[in-house]
Amino acid sequence: MVGFKVGQKVVYPNHGIGTIEQIEQKQIGTDSLPFYTLRLAATNSLVLVPVANATEVGLRTPISSGECEMLLKNLSDDFSSPANDWKDRFKDFSEKMRTGDIFEVADVLKNLTFLSHVKPLSFREQRMLERARYLVISELAAVCRQPECNIGPRVEQALSRACTKHERRPARARAAGAAAGH
């Protein structure tokens, strides 16, 4: 089991970066259980996470600085097209967001960014897009020790490269299909 220390930065799935402020015992029924008190950077609010459930809820250390470049590169790569049915798509994306894995979140960000250029997103998808963007930018900013205003444009550039790659791929396939008389 991963043990976190007071003062350590951690990532709480769907909420982003937080700092462990304290580890305290709380009386739950007849048991006294240790809890992490986590201050979320986004809202400055406190969250209690039972130490025993930390792995289960997906509490993790932020990516390494080496993984920052990997994540930015990943954001600029092409991606597989999401499900056409928004319900299936939303289910897939929700599962990826829940994993807390920033690379999965980045995949959701790419897909929703691309979709948002093609058509207006539903309210729920728009909210998820904003959440994914926040999670990616805030983690990169924290790890690269740069302000979010520096990271945001780099993320946008990477996303526009991914969208361009994605747009080009089906266009070639369509052109080939048309040439073949389909």
Can you put this structure into words, describing what you see?
The chain is built from 6 helices and 4 strands. 55% of the residues lie in helices and 18% in strands. The protein has helices spanning 54-57, 65-76, 86-99, 102-118, 123-144, 148-179; strands at 9-12, 16-28, 31-40, 46-50. The chain has a 4-stranded antiparallel β-sheet. It has 182 residues and is of the alpha+beta class. Strand 2 (16-28) and strand 3 (31-40) form a beta hairpin. The termini are far apart. The chain has 2 domains: 9-57, Thrombin, subunit H, CATH 2.40.10; 65-179, Methane Monooxygenase Hydroxylase, Chain G, domain 1 (Up-down Bundle), CATH 1.20.58.1290. 25% of the residues are buried.
What descriptive keywords fit this protein?
single chain, 182 residues, alpha+beta, Thrombin, subunit H, Methane Monooxygenase Hydroxylase, Chain G, domain 1, 2 domains, 6 helices
Concise overview:
This protein has 182 residues and is α+β, with helices and mostly antiparallel strands. It has six helices and four strands; from the N terminus they run E-E-E-E-H-H-H-H-H-H. It has a four-stranded antiparallel sheet with strand order 1-2-3-4.
| Helix content percent band | 55-70%
How many β strands by DSSP?
4
CATH class of the largest domain: Mainly Alpha
* Unreliable sequence segments: 174-178
Coarse morphology: globular
Give the topology, please.
Elements: E1 9-12, E2 16-28, E3 31-40, E4 46-50, H1 54-57, H2 65-76, H3 86-99, H4 102-118, H5 123-144, H6 148-179
Antiparallel strand pairs: 1-2, 2-3, 3-4
Helix pairs in contact: 2-4, 2-6, 3-4, 3-5, 4-5, 4-6, 5-6
